[in-house]
Amino acid sequence: NAGVTQTPKFQVLKTGQSMTLQCAQDMNHEYMSWYRQDPGMGLRLIHYSVGAGITDQGEVPNGYNVSRSTTEDFPLRLLSAAPSQTSVYFCASRARTGLGDEQYFGPGTRLTVT
Amino acid sequence: AQKITQTQPGMFVQEKEAVTLDCTYDTSDPSYGLFWYKQPSSGEMIFLIYQGSYDQQNATEGRYSLNFQKARKSANLVISASQLGDSAMYFCAMRVSRYSGAGSYQLTFGKGTKLSVIP
Chain A to chain B, count of Cβ pairs less than 8 Å apart? Predict the structure, then answer.
């Protein structure tokens, strides 16, 4: 049972480079989201999706793009990496049934932008 | 907008003792859910416990219990009989039920409390 998977686990980029962080879930969850975690800041929502073809911005969306072409996949694209995007990125998913549904997190991607 | 406040950046507890991690929240929505997550040094986010705003009783899961005081808007996590493996970051989070713009239905997190268990 894979749950939520993220690739890569670690990545180093130079300023200005672009890349895509991959996220996939095999639980047929409708809701998926991306968070970033910075020291002393907790997790902050970047973008989220409530179903295939539907995405919306979270608290800190600038510099990131998302798309949701399938239920399973929710990639996060960094358009032009900046040092301020150095962070740990978590993808999460949950079923669209109840307020108390557990949000399942992927293992995270540690990104460093130099 | 929703807000979670965790005022204790770090806490120490003796092994086998109980510890309370504080969490206060702010929302105007009458229907909401409160969550606690544990993040060990390995980095994964582990769900611990959930409390709904309309739940009559405080939630419990094994050694974890949630001290829910609705009028005070607090949702403190109590860990009984602390173990060395409890050393980790702990995050309080909230989800509201009503659509309220950016991030609706998603979790809003506090900044976390680092718990260290002393042998």
Answer: 61
Could you tell me which residues of chain B have a Cβ less than 8 Å from any Cβ in chain A? 4, 9, 31-33, 35, 43-45, 47, 50, 52, 91, 93, 95, 97, 102-103, 105-112
Rounded CA separation A59/A44 (Å): 7
Could you report the average pLDDT of every consecutive run of 10 residues in chain A (114 residues)?
91 97 95 92 91 92 96 97 97 83 92 97
Angle CA B91–B95–B99, to nearest 5: 150
Tokens representing residue A111 in the block:
């990104």
Structure confidence at residue B49 (pLDDT): 95
Do A33 and B97 make contact, defined as CB atoms within 8 angstroms? Answer: no
Write out chain B residues lying below 8 Å of A45, CB-based.
102-103, 106-108
pLDDT band at B102 (very low <50, low <70, confident <90, very high): low
Report the percent of chain B where pLDDT is more than 70: 94
What are the CA-CA distances from residue A50 to residues A33, A46, A53, A95 (Å)?
9, 14, 9, 10
- What the block records as the tokens of B50 is 């959930």
Q: Which among A41, A48, A90 has the least Cβ separation from residue B45?
A: A90
Distance between first and last Cα of chain B: 41
Out of A41, A59, A90, the one facing B103 most closely (by C-beta) is: A59
Half-sphere exposure of A60 (CA within 13 A, CB side): 16
